[in-house]
Amino acid sequence: MIGEEGLCVGRDSGEPVTDDYPGVAPYRFAGGTINGVAVDVSGEPYVDLEPEAAVAIMRQ
Hints:
18% of the residues lie in helices and 13% in strands. By secondary structure, it is of the alpha+beta class. The protein has one domain (1-60). It has a two-stranded antiparallel ribbon. A two-stranded antiparallel sheet has the order 3-4. Strand 1 (2-3) and strand 2 (6-7) form a beta hairpin. The protein is elongated.
């Protein structure tokens, strides 16, 4: 996830996406080896229009 908590590799410190996770947070990676991580930020950037709309409404 690259939201409010930042980028996590090898663990998930946030809320589980399912109740099937065993144990308690933080959920550590188990069952393999992470040999590398690549983050591709090419392409069109995501624009959150809700904050922009709020600013526009406040200016009126």
